[in-house]
Amino acid sequence: MCFHRLRLAIGCLLAPLALPAWPCEGPLVSLVVPYPAGGSMDAVMRLVAEAASEETGKTFVLRNIGGVSGALAVQHVLRQPADGCTVLAGNVNAVILAPLLVPQAGFQPTDLVPLGQVGTADFVVVAAPGLEAQSLEQLPAAAHRRGKPLSAGHPGHETLQHLALPLIERQLGLPLVRVPYKGSSVMVNDLIGGHLDIAVVAEPVATPLVARGQLKVLARLGQWLPSPAGGRQAPLLGWAGWFVAAPTPAPARDRLQAALLAALAQPALQQRLQALGSGVPDAAGQQRFAATVAADIGVYRRRVLER
């Protein structure tokens, strides 16, 4: 996509927005990431926070609160004053799946309001270069040669990555030893070190490691996973965005949304996000993000009930 055209398109979204004064006092805005430092969400949001700080004069500071499939981070955000000083870096796992699947989550997806989309990313199955398979279809033969099941990592229960593993098992007829982690950073280190055979990660996690020859991609799940009716399903994409607690006043929402859109309009940021494997939303994607989140709540609620 032409970065100039994208900047103009996002600029059109910004133009009608009156920019009120910051409703929260102090120079800092806390951007809460529901995973440990070093993962894909952390990497993407650090870049966006830096750009938002440049655009606004406020300092957007990341706070990493991992655990309970993102629920701990959401709980923290909902406990803070709804004044626009605390923002959640949310995704499907933390915003939708955690309250559906984690009994102790204590919140509903509708307790949060989306401000804007930061990006999209495919999910990929990765392995260390030494694994005796170049694709998912070759995994059964690799397991047979080893004489034992392969281990498969995922960044936490009740995540899209975790839900993908039984689909892979059924499609291949291959049992896997599922190994949960608290986020992706430790998991990929174990993968590179030979302590884990394969893992399901968001593409921004894999991109720099594949470029350095430390990992290889066996499949992109959006292109590989079958639909229940057979054939191929629509791409399995994860999204990430900024959210605030529902009681946050409209002026605070507007000011934060304007900060995000101004940051994403920077060509340099767009290039850095795309280099990580994170798709940058266009103006139309931004306008329908709230509707996308609402639709996904229904989609994943049905999938959970059907399990």
UniProtKB/TrEMBL annotation:
Family per similarity comment: Belongs to the UPF0065 (bug) family.
Species of the source: Aquincola tertiaricarbonis
CDD domains on file: PBP2_Bug_TTT
Any single Pfam family the record assigns to this protein: TctC
InterPro entries the UniProt entry points to: BUG (IPR005064), Bug_dom1 (IPR042100)
Statement: the UniProt record of this protein carries the keyword Zinc: no
Signal peptide as annotated in the record: 1-23
Name of the protein in its database record: Tripartite tricarboxylate transporter substrate binding protein
Protein's UniProt keywords contain rRNA-binding: no
PANTHER family documented for this protein: BLR1237 PROTEIN, TRICARBOXYLATE-BINDING PROTEIN
Keyword annotations from UniProtKB, A to Z: Signal
Superkingdom of origin: Bacteria
